[in-house]
Amino acid sequence: MSAQTNHEGMTCLDCHTSNKENKEGKLLVKDSSQEVCAKCHKGETLDVDKIMVGEFH
Ligand code: HEC
Ligand code: HEC
């Protein structure tokens, strides 16, 4: 990983699948948003409901 300080270099597919829904019915690579973040942010508690509003979408 380089000197990246945010998600700008990431693609949608780092977090999303293109055609397979998880058990919440969302196109995410894991079964919950928290698990998606935990792929890279291990041990951090992130308030997905606040963070995901607007900034990445
Ligand atoms: C850092 C991880 C991440 C990246 C990168 C990301 N998303 Fe998401 N996206 C999420 C998460 C997590 C949710 C679900 C938020 C929630 O629980 O409501 C979401 C929700 C969505 C939704 C709402 C529909 C749904 O399935 O709930 C759309 C549409 C979406 N993303 C499109 C995109 C597109 C297009 C890109 C690329 C430009 C992108 N996302 C990049 C994590 C990401
Ligand atoms: C594919 C790996 C990856 C995933 C998945 C990921 N992140 Fe990140 N995230 C990074 C990297 C790399 C950085 C920049 C380095 C740092 O600050 O630790 C970052 C930085 C952040 C930051 C601080 C910088 C900013 O952009 O504001 C927040 C907040 C954040 N991520 C939230 C989330 C949330 C919420 C999710 C789940 C929806 C998520 N991340 C999923 C890799 C990821």
UniProtKB/TrEMBL annotation:
InterPro entries assigned to the protein according to its UniProt record, in alphabetical order: Multihaem_cyt_sf, Paired_CXXCH_1
Chain ranges passing through the membrane: none
Residues in the signal sequence: none
Gene3D superfamilies registered for this protein in UniProt: Flavocytochrome C3, Chain A
SUPFAM superfamilies for the chain: Multiheme cytochromes
A Pfam family hit: Paired_CXXCH_1
Domain of life: Bacteria
Occurrences of domain Doubled CXXCH motif (ranges): 8-43
Protein's name in the database: Doubled CXXCH motif domain-containing protein
Organism: Thermanaerosceptrum fracticalcis
